Fold:
Amino acid sequence: MKKSVIAIITAVMMTLAFPVAGFATETPSTEGDAAEAEQVINATDEEDALTLQDTNTDEAVSEETQQDTTAEPSATEPSDAALSGAAKEDENDEELDAKALAARIPKTKYKGAQPAFPNAIAQQAIKIAFKYGTAKSKMTYPGASAKPEFQKAIQQAYGARKGWGKQTRAGASCDVFVGTVVRSCGYDTKFPRGLEEDLKYLPNSKFTELGITKKKEFQPGDIILYNNKGSGGHIAIYVEIAGKGYLAEASYSWKRYGRITKAHDWTPSHYKSYGVFRPNKACMGPIQYGDYNSGVKALQQFLNWAGFDCGTPDGDFGKKTEEAVKLFQKSQGLEADGEFGSKSYAAAQKYTNWGARKMLKGTNPIVTKKPVANNAHAVAAKSAKKTSTTTAKAPAKKAYTGALPTKTIKYKSKKKGEVKKWQKFLKWYGYPVKVDGKFGKGTKKYTKKFQKKVGLKATGKVGKKTVAKAKAVKK
Structure:
């Protein structure tokens, strides 16, 4: 049977054989063909067996290799000692970098001017308020949101603000804006909320009242508290940007979040001023990205001298100046945050003739000498203080000669003539009431104040007893 199969295979191979180029064609004998075919079959069986054996052997080798890899670390893998050494080398590289940076600084003392640091109150006001020219739609409550910096600052200044009105809770009022600035910058963490509370609080040990009304006399960080005649009060902070004066403020009536607006002089025809209150312990903050003033220019001059290129000193604290400050800080072993504050100033003192500075806790600022008003301002301040304290509380020594109401009036009363008489009296007495014949919330508010002042029950209703007390008032 095996021989017959071999014969068949041989016949097929002979039938399919064809000459190959470059080789001679031979016709093998039948007996040789059979032997060769048998060798092919046997070889094929042996190759299949070897292939299977090789496969099994490869799998075994693979498993063995995997076990070896798990059991022993690779010869190329670094040891813990090597890693520790590399870390130490990195630390040494950093030290060398700091030393190399410090080597840039000249050995001689720097004789240039020391930088004037910005007022922390003004700086914070600019930071959290919308910039000048921002569209009203972006800062109108409740459609828009306050700046993230404002939201963070008001949380820091007042916390949860439970029980507040919606606008004051959100910060869309002048008194809350100013309080947020003064508290969050760290100058005065007890600064009150509410215009009446502000009037009682100022002046004090931290704020000096100045009798000035001209914009050119203001300084960054001055708090300006005044009232529009007959339409309530307002409080704002004077700031300067690129040498120009602005007011940082918020508005309850207009529902505006903190914003920057143009500063202006006061004139008697427009405003009845309560005064300007200046921090009597100057609160200077770090020079930082976005500042634009002469202090920045002086800093840039120092950094260029020290070997940390700021470009041409122009007073504009941009990215290049920030990078130069970081390099200087790194050369001194300080945290490279890019803000030239108290620690950076102290480090710079080693290379300059700059005087020592004291720090104000809470803002990392640099405190300079106490600002001193000139004699004219000091005299005016006393006069302004007397005026402001007598405006609403101290009655004159003469009796009121104007007409008083002859009929009972109260909130929302339609007796315009009688209401006007009463409003004129209240204004004469010193309250900022608008004489328009409308008995609104303002008239009711100051009526209650007068009643309380003269020992009556504060009902807000003007009857015979209230009018009798008004007649008895002496000025």
About this structure: The radius of gyration is 44 Å. Confidence is low (pLDDT under 50) at residues 15-77, 82-94, 359-396. The longest helix spans residues 30-71.
